[in-house]
Amino acid sequence: MSESHTPSSGSARLNTGVAHNARVWNYWIGGKDNYEVDQQVGEHVAGMFPIIRDIARADRWFLGRAVRFLTEERGVRQFLDIGTGLPTVDNTHEIAQRIAPDARIVYVDNDPIVLAHARTLLTSTPGGVTDYIDADVHDPTAILERAARTLDLTEPVAVMMLGILNFVLDVEKARRIVREIMAAVPSGSYLVLTHPTFDDDLGGAGQIPAMEFWNENATPPITARSGEDIAAFFEGLEFLEPGLVSCSRWRAEPETPPVVPQFGAVAVKP
């Protein structure tokens, strides 16, 4: 991508001297869009908490299953993907538009590296639309205003919030963000969410020291939450089967994958 295509706002924010979540996550799933500092922090976290790579892969596979299910079985044709991260194989728009070429997808992120790869995300089928907006999850009003330029918010929307609310450290603020976004979409819309947990029954205790190291050495700061707190994000919505589970187990393939300490769920707005 030539420099002329890189948004100036992204260039101004780019700091390759500090590990950043989007790039470290990219490193964990085998991507190439990362720097030495991301690899170093990623390796250290993986040494402290070896299952982190399994979490990253499980989260990505959950996205694929959820988008396919909603497009094929629920007829969803609009997706608002908040905190999309760096593009890799089978992004939301690719999965949805393979099934429904007329699907419309809006990606939301505020990471400069993601901005620099926006052209990759913006490749749509001729009959569909794929758009990208530079916005922060902490500002849902701006997200909704800009998403409405591409999506019809009077028709059902699947709101994708995979691994993003863990960067909103105040749980009440995180709940308000979800409430505001879901209030703006109609009945028949969906919330698709994953979130790391420290719950022991999912093996999450090791998240705590790993996240402490992360918060001292990388950006942005992150938090894990209990299953109870994560379930509260779905207030007023109806879980689809199998409910709130380890994201690796949500409508998983016949070969049972390992449980990871990352909850995942899909719920519908009645």
Structural description of this entry:
Helix 2 crosses helix 3 and helix 4 packs parallel to helix 5 (92-99). With 270 residues, the chain is an alpha/beta fold. Strands 2, 3, 4, 5, 6, 8, 9 and 10 form an 8-stranded mixed β-sheet that branches. Strands 1-7 form a two-stranded parallel ribbon. It is built from 11 helices and 10 strands. Mean pLDDT is 89; it is low at 1-12.
Break the fold down into its secondary structure elements and pairings.
Blueprint: H1 8-13, E1 19-20, H2 21-28, H3 36-48, H4 52-72, E2 78-82, H5 92-99, E3 104-109, H6 112-116, H7 118-121, E4 129-134, H8 140-147, E5 158-162, H9 171-183, E6 190-196, H10 207-217, E7 218-219, H11 227-231, E8 238-239, E9 245-246, E10 262-268
Parallel strand pairs: 1-7, 2-3, 2-5, 3-4, 5-6
Antiparallel strand pairs: 6-10, 8-10, 9-10
Helix pairs in contact: 2-3, 3-10, 4-5
Give a brief outline of the structure.
The chain is 38% helix and 16% strand.
* Global shape: globular
Instruction: Write down the secondary-structure element order.
Output: HEHHHEHEHHEHEHEHEHEEE
The average pLDDT is 89
Beginning-to-end CA distance, first to last residue: 43 Å
**Helicity, in percent?**
25-40%
From the structure provided, what is the oligomeric state, counting identical versus distinct chains?
Answer: single chain
- The count of DSSP E runs of length 2 or more, i.e. the number of strands, is 10
- Radius of gyration, whole Å: 17 Å
What is the percentage of strand-forming residues?
Answer: 15-25%
What structural class results from the helix and strand content? alpha/beta
Low-confidence stretches: 1-12
Helix count from the secondary structure assignment: 11
> For the report, how would you describe the main beta sheet?
8 strands, mixed
